[in-house]
Amino acid sequence: MAYKDVYEAWKADPEGFWMEAAQAIDWIEPPSKALFDENAPIYEWFADAKVNTCWNAVDRHVEAGRGPQYAIIYDSPITGRTHKITYSELRNRVATLAGALRAKGVEKGDRVIIYMPMVPEALEAMLACARLGAIHSVVFGGFASNELAVRIDDAKPKAILAASCGIEPGRIVHYKPLLDEAIEMAEHKPEFCVILQREQEVAKLVEGRDYGWHSFQYGATPAECVPVEGNHPSYILYTSGTTGQPKGVIRQTAGQLVALNWTMKNIYNVDPGDVFWAASDVGWVVGHSYICYGPLIHGNTTIVFEGKPVGTPDAGTFWRVISEHKVKSFFTAPTAFRAIKREDPKGEFVRKYDLSCLKALFLAGERADPDTITWAQEQLGVPVVDHWWQTETGWAIAANPLGIEELPTKLGSPSVPMPGYDVRILDEGGHELPAGQLGAIAIKLPLPPGTLPSLWNAEERYRKSYLEHFPGYYETGDAGYKDEDGYLYIMARTDDVINVAGHRLSTGAMEEVLASHPDVAECAVIGVSDDLKGQLPVGFLCLNAGTNRPAEEIVAEVVKLVREKIGPVAAFKQAVVVDRLPKTRSGKILRGTMVKIADGQDFKMPATIDDPAILDEIREALKSLGYPKS
Ligand code: COA
Ligand code: AMP
């Protein structure tokens, strides 16, 4: 069948489409139907089924004879280690960890926070939770204590699983002190922590609260897979919204199983047994869907890569991994390719390796710029697929579904909507716009299986943030257009979210940190274009009257403060002191206009601007930071 036929088949009979996809899953009790719309606009999928994620991702493959196949290949150029784990070994490791957690009281529905670097134990921790029906929440290692504390207070975990440290080029990330500080800060206290001691740093354990990873599991009775309802939350993943309070995206068990399994063949074009690699981090949605769950549910081998695209040790590291482990389908962020291209523009490293195993490259996390796509196409000689999705959706909204049909690539477009997604471009009033016109991108409800049903502890916020603006639709927060052939173009965010090196960050959260500095009266943070990371945050500070300390000192302090409060991942390194911020007469800061000045783009003077002269001051301030770049 061609893509058009598949998409039309879904449209004609969504219930039949998803019930058929559901047949690929091992159910303890199969669902009586696919969509549960009794509480519309809150929708659930396969809600009345009984199922277990870990069974589907691990045990069933062992039962089916895949026991000797590698489930996980850990490749860590930063430590020089590799470790391959078969499906049989994985089952034993996960069952034992789950048994130890259960012996300490972790049960179905309990929350468990996982704060770990890219090591196989991070996936094992996720799967052990899934085995028990416990709900995990993985926190990215680049976040600081304060961010971790916010998540502890929201998720209220019974246990935290962590590592003693992470390793970044040139420095050790001291996870354990960060964890201790976060627990100290949080109101909610976990009952216990399990710490994976790494040889690079052995952490001090808190007597009575902390256990070493191995001693904790010693002698534990392996746990069997606990049946859970189809709508049981599989995990909570916090993502940036417009404020400092992150949104806890909920993923439900059955929808995730059915949808991710469907994508592995239809989008990524891999068959069970093939090696699939997503070079991201378990702390992001890509890590949840395509390092851990998707490939394992589908019986693939997944790669856990602890390194960077460049510098560990060189710009050929991705090609070495692909060649050595026979990766068939590879997924990363465009920023990684930009970093490689910068160091190896002629692709000399690419030619050092036999990459004949590689059949496709997938890019997501930020807009894939045409230069990057063209370079990747030329170097690798395989289809390069830009695909668009979000933490909220858990899998691609738009893609080029290579397993169904390779559609013509259009540079700058993540191609076409996937079955399950009825994507519309709307004007402010919610009217559909014709092809070629830029508008808000919305998806007609219901969203497909595997997408978020709501936010953790915050259904009202879910309704307000996503459903209220355009009744009957999910608002993606992205703006863009469709062309005559139905290809989508994703152009910008409509909110205060920026995208730095494929990481989603909230300028609102950074503003909250800047505003907490005693000398700062008012502030704004904008995302300016950056050749490598896509965007970089820049802060503007108005100081309290009477502050007479040097501006550089205050700038250095706020840079430090953002690193301490949000974490290094914010990449907040630039700020400037200004007298005033440009505003509308009603007091709204004109961030969009500031971005245009920073990027050297033409802009129309906003009709509602209070004092146009302030824009000249902003221009000067940006010039002092080297913007616009060209
Ligand atoms: N734990 C602790 N700190 C981390 C971290 C982690 N897991 N990941 C990143 N950081 C730190 C980095 O060390 C860096 O700190 P620094 O300010 O001391 O240099 C900071 O956070 C910013 O990190 P990042 O934006 O990732 O930049 P980078 O300099 O580490 O490298 C590139 C970025 C350019 C190499 C980029 O191409 C890349 O690989 N980005 C990641 C892409 C990705 O996986 N995105 C996920 C969505 S698919
Ligand atoms: P995250 O939730 O971290 O995955 O970030 C999701 C956001 O990243 C989207 O809403 C987009 O703004 C952006 N994004 C992700 N993939 C793409 C893509 N292929 N093209 C353009 N923007 C993208």
From TrEMBL:
<protein>
    <submittedName>
        <fullName>Propionyl-CoA synthetase</fullName>
    </submittedName>
</protein>
<dbReference type="InterPro" id="IPR032387">
    <property type="entry name" value="ACAS_N"/>
</dbReference>
<dbReference type="Pfam" id="PF16177">
    <property type="entry name" value="ACAS_N"/>
</dbReference>
<dbReference type="InterPro" id="IPR042099">
    <property type="entry name" value="ANL_N_sf"/>
</dbReference>
<dbReference type="InterPro" id="IPR025110">
    <property type="entry name" value="AMP-bd_C"/>
</dbReference>
<dbReference type="InterPro" id="IPR000873">
    <property type="entry name" value="AMP-dep_synth/lig_dom"/>
</dbReference>
<feature type="domain" description="Acetyl-coenzyme A synthetase N-terminal">
    <location>
        <begin position="3"/>
        <end position="57"/>
    </location>
</feature>
<comment type="similarity">
    <text>Belongs to the ATP-dependent AMP-binding enzyme family.</text>
</comment>
<feature type="domain" description="AMP-dependent synthetase/ligase">
    <location>
        <begin position="68"/>
        <end position="444"/>
    </location>
</feature>
<dbReference type="Pfam" id="PF00501">
    <property type="entry name" value="AMP-binding"/>
</dbReference>
<dbReference type="GO" id="GO:0070013">
    <property type="term" value="C:intracellular organelle lumen"/>
</dbReference>
<feature type="domain" description="AMP-binding enzyme C-terminal">
    <location>
        <begin position="510"/>
        <end position="588"/>
    </location>
</feature>
<dbReference type="Pfam" id="PF13193">
    <property type="entry name" value="AMP-binding_C"/>
</dbReference>
<dbReference type="GO" id="GO:0050218">
    <property type="term" value="F:propionate-CoA ligase activity"/>
</dbReference>
<dbReference type="InterPro" id="IPR020845">
    <property type="entry name" value="AMP-binding_CS"/>
</dbReference>
<dbReference type="InterPro" id="IPR045851">
    <property type="entry name" value="AMP-bd_C_sf"/>
</dbReference>
